[in-house]
Every structure is written in structure tokens, then in C-alpha cells.
Amino acid sequence: MSIKRLFDIPYYALQNLPKNDMFVTKYQGEWKKTSTLEFINQGNKISRGLLKLGIKPGDKIALITTNSRTEWAIMDLGLSQIGVVSVPVYPSISSEDYEFIFSNAEVKYCFVSDKELLDKVMKIKHQVPSLQGIFTFDNINGAANWKEILDLGEDDSTQIEVEDLSKAINPDQIATIIYTSGTTGRPKGVMLSHENIVSNLLACLPRIPKKKNLDYKDTRVLSFLPICHIFERLLFYLFQYHGFSVYFAESIEKMGENVKEVKPHYMSVVPRLIEKVYDKIYNTGSSAGGLKEKIFFWALNLIQKKKEISKPSGLAEIIADKLVFKKWREGLGGEIITLVSGSAALSTRLNLMFQNAGIPILEGYGLTETSPVISVNSFQQMKVGTVGHPLDNLTVKIQEDGEITVKGPSVFKGYFKNEEMTKEAFTSDGFFKTGDIGHIDSEGFLQITDRKKEMFKTSGGKYIAPQTIENLAKGSKFIEQIMVVGDGEKMPTALIQPDFEFAKNWAARNNLNLGTTPKEIAKSPELKARIEKEVDKINEHLGNWEKIKKIELTPEVWSIESGLITPTLKLKRKAIKEKFIDLYNKMYDHKE
């Protein structure tokens, strides 16, 4: 059967790749499996139940879950096959953003995972006239449960209505509206059709490898990124298409435990996770003591010298692999075929290091508006430091100012209720403007250099690309987060959030007393002087006009909860500058 709509994917899987554990979620400490057939049956019950509730094609239903789980997948199928538009929402955004999204999309019903999210939505329920009801996945006293919809759809005599509606759905109909988290301003509702996402899925298939000797029935995925994010969602559909088992991780905190239990073959990651994994590896190795510590640093030094990807060769590399890098792989379950990285730029140094440690990473690039993949590396064509070749069904054009623009079937239908913004998003000849600056090299690989909106000009007229400088800083153990600033100023400077835990350990080794709280640690002149040495190393790779001249350490962690980074872990530059305006003014000797 051909796949043209999102709900065609599970039916294709049932026909060609049925299995007992299509989706697996942990409840009360026990992994519960849902088979392909059970998944489709449950999806049909949701469809029938919603129709009995009075839901019609084109209506909007919001889905919010703290951690991805099987119920979300069932809801997604149940909505899509009767033409209902899903509105997946990040759990971590503010109540004000919930109110805006629900009102803008005219959401009729909302399904949430737990009590915390229920309370959050209840706060704004009365400000959203369209919102008729809220259902929960967890059993919560006094709250309507999603099983009520399943019960409503228990009678299958109305299944013919579901099938008639499914047959009538065209690939170009809107399947979902995804509100981008945005680093500035209100979220924008990105309208994606069935064709947008399906065309992207089919074009990505040759890039994400299947291991020849591995039976699909034994292939496992660990999914932990928010499924409301189009990157994770696209892979969620791709893994269904391949018939892989998708295990939903309990939380980021339990990732280590879940990895050991599931032993995944595939995982999607964001660069921040790779950085955290490496930090943990480094901290373990550097504190092992004695011979183990010496072996760790010997092996690390060996791998850092490699400038290309290659298998261990020569006695030293083979020994290093067996003694050190094998343990890295075991830390990720020992069976990883590849990690798929997206959402932000991955440090070339870390990418190369993991590749040569036998942990392949396929780095790609895209936006919500492009469903999302524009380009991605593959095992056949890979170049570290780039985001691979553009997909075969897309045309990528670099504009005169360096902006990457794209045209093709996965480019979105427009911003919901915002024709003016939609018009501004395209060139006169129909290419979508990504807002990213980059170039395509002589071998056809796409390389991203910065966000167009994030580039700034100093008072001397020199352009600064902050992301390029910030990516260099990710190699430092002392720097957790960094934001390069200086728009309209005489020189670039940087606000830095130290890695407070690493700073404490460093202080203990050097008999320094930095204090215990972030506020105390950030005030330490010794730590600032040490981080300035790290910045000097970064400056060695930069032109004179780009060098960071001053730094200030921020006295708190930059987090989603504090509103300083987005749910996809990008910097909210305006919010960070406003939050630490005193430190900014200090660097430029601005008076209050």
C-alpha cells in the first residue's frame, strides 16, 4: 500500500511489519507493550468516541504530555484519521502561552498527561471560550479521563463512519498545527499537512540506515525528546514505518537507567544531551584515580588527534577501544546503530570524538516549517561539521546575503491566521526563508554558520556571528552556557553561565572555597580568571574583531523554567540580556 497520509503508516506497519511491542511505556515501574493491532484498535476507539462527542473534521484538539507515552501515539492516530487537527503543545511553556495557543487555534478539547499540566490548563480554561473539556491520561480524582473517550468508542458499529472520513482526507489537508517555541515574541502556529510530513519521512528513509542482519522485530528505539517537537515526531513516524519498537523514556533524569534496560539501536538526541553524556564520561574518567585515570586520558588524547572518522587501527587504538571506548558504548546500551542529532549545531570536536569512539552520529538540519528535515548526513555521504546533503526532493538556494532558502513538498502551508507573516516568510519566487546563514560546499554538503537574526554589527561596522563563537566554547568543561553580545557596541563580550558542579569539583581539587550556591560561585574572582583562560583559547580561533574582550558570570542556571532557554534548548537572547542587564552594562561601562 502507498503511504500518503499520516494514519496510513500504522496500517502499512500492520500489513507488512506487525509486532507485539510497537510502543512501550513504563507504568509503576513496569514496561507495558502495545502491539500494532492493539494500537490501531485503540486509535479507532478514540476516533469513534470523539465523533460521538460531537467532534468534526477540522476541529482542533490539544495534546500535552510531560513525557512521551503510548497514549499520545494513540490520540495522534485517532485524531488524524477523522480529519481532526492536532495541536501538540510543549509542557514547559507558560500559562500565558497556553492561553494564547488555545485561543488562537480555537482548541475544543485538551488531553494532558498529569495533574501538574491539568492544573496549568485549568488556570486558563475560563479565558478560552472554545475549550469545552480537558481529559487526563493519568487517573486523577475529579478529572475526566481519556478512557471515557475509549469507552464511548467501544461500540464498533460506527466504524464505517471513521473509514468514510479517512477515505475523504486528502494529503494536502492540514494534519497538525505546531506552535514554534520562538526565541522572541509570541509562538507562531505552523500549519503542516499530511503530505508535508509524509514527503519528508519518505525522503529521509535512505539517510537513516537499517542494519542488514537485524530483524525489525528485534530493533528498539528509545524516544525521550518531546514528541510535540516535529524532529522527534518525524522520527516517531519513520520508526513506525520500519516496524521498530519505540520505547518511551520515563524522563531525562532516568535516561541512564532506561538506556540500560532497553539497549536501544536508535536514539534521537540534541547537542546538549551529547555534551551532558560527554561531561559524565569525562568526570567519571578523570576522577577514577591511579592507573584507570591515566589510561582514560591516554585514550582520550589518542582519539582527539584523529581528524577523520576511522575504525581503530594499530595496536594503541585497538587497546584504547577495548579498555575505554567500549565502556562508552556500553553506557549507551552497547547496541547503538546511530544517534540522530538535530535542533541545534553539534560541536565538530564532540561529533568526531563520538564517531571515532564507535558511536555514530547522523547530524541533520531543519525547521518546524520544513516538516522538519532539510538536510542530513548518512553513512554513505558524511562530513563532520556539516549537516549533510539536502534531501533529494528539496531545492536549496543560498541567497546573496547567505540566507538558506528552500522549496519542496515538505515546506509548510503557512502560519495559522497570519497571512502577512506567511507572505514575509517566502521570497518572491516561492522559496521559504529559513533565517539561517550557510553555504553549500564543493561536495554538496550544507554548512550552517549562524542565525541571520542573531548576527549583529559592532559600532565599528564589523559583523559578528555569535553561534559560531558559542559553539567553540562548548568544548570547555567550565562553560555550561554562553551568549555572545555586543550589538552596536565597540566590541563583542559574553555572558557565561558556569558549569556550577564542575566548578565546585575544580575548586575542591585546588583547595579553593567558591561557596556552594550559584550566586556565590559566580562571584569568585578565581573562577572568573580561570574561565577567562578558556575564553583566551577560544579567541585563538577568531579574527581580531570577533575576539571576546570581556566576560561576566551569571549567578543562576539558564533553564526552560526560568524562561531563558526554549523547550528545544535554544537561547532566548532577549530574555537573557534583560535578565542580566546589570552584568551587560558592567562589561560596557554603561551608567544606569
Descriptive report:
InterPro entries: AMP-binding_CS, AMP-dep_synth/lig_dom, ANL_N_sf. Pfam families: AMP-binding, AMP-binding_C_3. This protein is an alpha/beta fold and 592 residues long. Among the domains are: 8-210, ANL, N-terminal domain (Rossmann fold, 3-Layer(aba) Sandwich), CATH 3.40.50; 455-587, ANL, C-terminal domain (GMP Synthetase, Chain A, domain 3). It is built from 21 helices and 26 strands. Strands 2-1-11-10-12-13-14-15-16 form a nine-stranded mixed β-sheet, with helices on both faces. The chain has a five-stranded parallel β-sheet with strand order 4-3-5-6-7, with helices on both faces. The longest helix is centred in the middle third of the chain and has 18 residues, at 314-331. The protein is globular and about 75 Å long. The chain starts with 7 loop residues before the first helix and ends in a 5-residue tail after the last helix. The relative contact order is 0.08.
Summarize the structure.
Residues 26-416 form the AMP-dependent synthetase/ligase domain. With 592 residues, this protein is an alpha/beta fold.
Topology record:
Layout: H1 8-16, E1 23-27, E2 30-34, H2 36-52, E3 60-64, H3 70-80, E4 85-88, H4 95-105, E5 107-112, H5 115-124, E6 133-136, E7 144-145, H6 147-152, H7 159-168, E8 174-179, E9 189-193, H8 194-204, E10 220-223, H9 230-242, E11 245-248, H10 255-262, E12 266-269, H11 271-286, H12 290-304, H13 314-331, E13 338-341, H14 348-356, E14 361-366, E15 373-376, E16 389-390, E17 395-398, E18 403-407, E19 414-415, H15 419-424, E20 432-440, E21 446-451, E22 456-457, E23 463-464, H16 466-473, E24 479-485, E25 493-498, H17 500-509, H18 518-522, H19 525-539, E26 551-553, H20 573-579, H21 581-587
Parallel strand pairs: 1-11, 3-4, 3-5, 5-6, 6-7, 10-11, 10-12, 12-13, 13-14, 25-26
Antiparallel strand pairs: 1-2, 8-9, 9-19, 14-15, 15-16, 17-18, 18-20, 20-21, 22-23, 24-25
Helix pairs in contact: 1-2, 1-9, 2-3, 4-5, 8-9, 12-13
Domain AMP-dependent synthetase/ligase: 26-416
InterPro entries: AMP-binding_CS (IPR020845), AMP-dep_synth/lig_dom (IPR000873), ANL_N_sf (IPR042099)
Pfam families: AMP-binding (PF00501), AMP-binding_C_3 (PF23562)
